[in-house]
Amino acid sequence: MLFIDCTVQASVTTSNGYYTIDFYEDTLSGIENRWIFDLNVNDPDVPGDVEELFFDVMFFNPAINFSNSYNPDSPYYEFSIYAQSTSQLFPVISSDQLATPVGTTYLFYATPLLTEILDDELQPVMGSFGIRLENETFMFNGPVNFVAVPEPACGLFFIFGAWFLRRFSRVKRMR
Question: Where are the domains of the chain?
Answer without folding.
Answer: 1-89, 94-174
